[in-house]
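>> received
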Amino acid sequence: MYLDEIVSAQKRGEARGIPSICSAHPWVLRAVMQTAQQTSQVSRTSEILLVEATCNQVNQFGGYTGMTPAGFSAYVRGIAEQDRFPCERIILGGDHLGPSVWQDEPAESAMEKAEVMIREYAQAGFTKIHLDCSMRLADDPNGVLDVEVAAIRAARLAKVAEESLPSPTGRGSGGEGLRYVIGTEVPIPGGATEHEEGVSVTRAEDVRQTISITREVLRREGLESGWERVIAVVVQPGVEFGDDFVLDYQPEKARALAQWIETEPGLVYEAHSTDYQTRDALRQLVRDHFAILKVGPGLTFAFREAVFALALIENEWLPADTCSNLIRVLNDVMVGQPKDWLKYYHGNAAEQAFKRKFSLSDRARYYWGQPEVQSALGRLMKNLGARPMPLSLLRQFAPRELGTLRERGAPLTPEAVVLERVAQALRDYQAACLGR
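>> returned
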């Protein structure tokens, strides 16, 4: 399995990694697949994609995307088939799989729902499973959840995953194709909700404790082979982002953490919230054994940047009564349906209005599927695709995309501009993970 190759390369001292694409956005997935195809043509290798869904995004009740695990799997593969990307080169991952969605329920109720969810993920072909039981549930004691309790719950879910797949004999416990990620020090999905000046790097001793306890619990529960398929542990390397800030990776602060994992065979680190890190910082993360780099909002932010640039071209070029007014439509829908941004965007009315458009947390990503927004986006693309866009306006609002597309001799269509903007964000990850 390709993830095993990444771990083996790291243990040989090679700076190899893989980006983890945490997005269900169709334009992002199309850009990722097209970029991988281009990379494969240049390097003459078969680029492997890791696409992940979170428990809040996709679960047995539909999550906020409205998709079950089987639905998400079919959705990703459908995009791949449309773009002629080989489905066998896609690894599906499940992120934060555990009782997080049901934290307000008693432990037994929440865990029963988590068991159903992880069973559906495994049966839908998700092979990279992040066992995340780090959160306190309604009837747990106050304070940070005990590491052993988290490990016992994670083992319970791992056992369900193992038994959900048929073995060669036709019975359960056919989990040989599964790979697990563990870790109790898990950043908030989607970025921080408050401005932060710094975050504490995970202590090597805390990682050692997590690994030791989880290993012991899995073995005690008869999941020795399951432990052998644990490939990574989630830690905090000191990176984070929020509305208006990015905390860049500082290798010296994570030196002890990086050195410690070198002594643990078969394991690397998984880094969350790496969005908006520089290419050099991403290279340093991979060099320091953070071999799985998760990115999501940074890619949908790039999509929004491109669409806004096209909307500004439309405003300057076409009669007002024919324009899509996409930026206004998006904002109006967000104001009318505030549940996905209101508790995240603090400040007065003007500050919130700014964040709805430009926050690095990119809560706008939850609204692109709304019918009014889809209609405005379709009109924008139709308006700008009817005839060639003026080079002067492309130079003004999308200069990098214009330059790259012209170098490749690619058509200067609005779709090409959007896909290229997302691809630019992704190429930093590809370069870092391929040691370039």
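>> Residues 297-317 form the longest helix (21 residues).
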